[in-house]
Amino acid sequence: MIYSVIPWEDIGVTFVPALNWWLKEISVIYLTAAILIGLINRMPEATFVSAFIAGCRDMIGVALVIAVAKGINVIMNNANITDTILSWAEHLVVGLDSGVFAVVSYLAHIILAFFIPSSSGLATVSMPLMGPMSDFAGVSRDIVVTAYQLGSGWINLFAPTAATVVAGLAMANIPYGRFLKWVMPYIGAVLLSSCVMLYFAA
């Protein structure tokens, strides 16, 4: 899957064929892998179907978040709301120090990621705005993508809205308050080092 989605020609690699796969092909990989896992584990048909449906049930929330985020994006574009926000934001970011913009972008993604724990949903909501804003600020778009990744990753290390954190703590029988108290020094260090790295990278 990793090999198939890499645009090899775009990064200057010409000696390997590029497959240019994306969501449809990846979906087939996941479906095929699920069937193979069922066969390897010698699962009865009814057990496999039940397990597969339970897995699909877990993904419904993510799919709905992405669909709603895309719907918001379409409405904002068609109603020229995106253009209005960008016009307003242009006055704020033009002339702003590039390092400051990178750090502010990081903090904005942290706030958004708290309410949108899905990384794909977050990208769908934030990138149509943050990409052009980085152009106004004179900051490379790869810095904004890094800020998005850092923000989403940082908040999902401990946020109560992150399903993996809550599920992991429940399985380990650890109260959230105790976990938060123990992990805070690490979380603070990651936040500070991320801000410093983004500032100097920009």
Brief description of this entry?
By secondary structure, the chain is mainly α. 78% of the residues lie in helices and 0% in strands.
Characterize the biggest β-sheet: none
State the separation between the terminal residues, measured CA to CA.
31 Å
Q: Spans with pLDDT under 50 lasting ≥5 residues?
A: none
How would you state the average pLDDT, rounded?
85
Order of helices and strands: HHHHHHHHH
Shape descriptor: globular
**How large, in whole angstroms, is the Cα Rg?**
20 Å
Class by helix and strand content?
A: mainly alpha
In percent terms, what proportion of residues is strand? under 5%
Helix content: over 70%
Question: How would you sum up this structure, described in words?
Answer:
By secondary structure, the protein is mainly α. 78% of the residues lie in helices and 0% in strands. It contains nine helices and no strands. It has helices at 2-5, 23-40, 45-78, 81-93, 98-115, 119-137, 141-155, 163-172, 176-201. α5 runs antiparallel to α6, α5 (98-115) crosses α7 (141-155) and α7 runs antiparallel to α9 (176-201). The longest helix has 34 residues, at 45-78.
